[in-house]
Known about the structure:
The complex is a heterodimer of chains A (about 220) and B (about 120). Chain A has helices at about 1-15, 25-35, 45-50, 55-75, 90-110, 120-135, 145-170, 195-220. With about 220 residues, chain A is mostly helical. Chain A has one domain. In chain A, about 40% of the residues are buried. Chain B has about 120 residues and is an all-alpha fold. Chain B has a single domain (about 5-115), classed as Helix Hairpins, CATH 1.10.287. Chain B is about 65% helix and about 0% strand. Chain B has helices at about 5-25, 30-50, 70-75, 80-110. The radius of gyration of chain B is 20 Å and the shape is elongated. The chains are: A mainly alpha (about 220), B mainly alpha (about 120). At the A-B interface, helix 1, helix 2, helix 3, helix 4 and helix 8 of A face helix 1 and helix 4 of B.
Amino acid sequence: MLVLLFGIFLFQILRLYHTQETLNPTAAYYNTNTPSEVGAANVVTAIVVTYRGLDTLGEVTVLFLTAMILGYILRQGGREKTEKDTTSEILITAAKVLIPGSIVLGVYVFINGHLTPGGGFQGGAIIGTAITLMILADPLHSLRAALLHFVESMSGFFYIVIGLAGLIFAGGFLDNRILPAGQLGDLFSAGAIPLIYSLIGLKVGTEISSIISNINETGNNTVKL
Amino acid sequence: MSITIDKVALVLGMILMLVGLWGGFTRTNLLKIILSFSIFDTGLNILIVALGYLPGRTAPIIDGVVVAADNLATRAIDPVPQALVLTAIVIGFGVTALMLVYAMKLNQHRKSLDINHYTDLKW
């Protein structure tokens, strides 16, 4: 019944919806001024990292909190190592081929976040996938949690430092103009955006990895659908 | 009312949202409820991206050929919904991970994933 009501509500939205013909003022502002103000070829990246940089900082914080809460909850129940099924030869071999490639792809995606579709979150998710594959192929081998936490804290720390540097040397918190804008379309352009997005990429990648490895190390194979 | 790609995407997103809502209300397995939330989330994201569509335009990325720096305002679509959806996807990931781990913990304690077995907060 409720679903039906919600369906009628959605249908009303659809009925009243008209395809836009021109950009609304906000979008027009971003599309007109991004090349000159930010110098990033990818407007979405410019919005996420520079215009709405504070929101992105909050978003990274949410992800960090999630990882932390999960680690806390999962460690409470003791960490008994249950024996796991040995993984198949196919998975182990395929993982050896795929992991280096996916990590390189992830790094490529977050370094080129200001030029091509993609960015820190997407690249970080790709790296997290590679780590997941590694854990799947070899469940008994545990990741070095200290290293993960170190990389994660350092990237978070330098993200804030870059933000504060923007406050001192440029127009405001997380302003990307602390570094020269460079030629539009070059790898080293758009000021601090590649740097910030790389840090976000590392942070998201390590956060996803630590979530996965926490879940793995709790050792619960009793879930049956 | 002509059929354009944004309307197709809108309808698809709405169908996914309805499927997710229905699943969330009718399933009893915790994992399936979480899956329904995820489907609802995906539908909502598709819907938001579809709202930013303008006919005959391309992605808001300067590539020098189709979209140069000076004609971005006339050739590119609305970038704001895409930036919002990027945020929404990340938050959705965090929420899903939390729900899955809670379900896992519940299963460890009570050996059940059926929502009907958890009546402590029911009145």
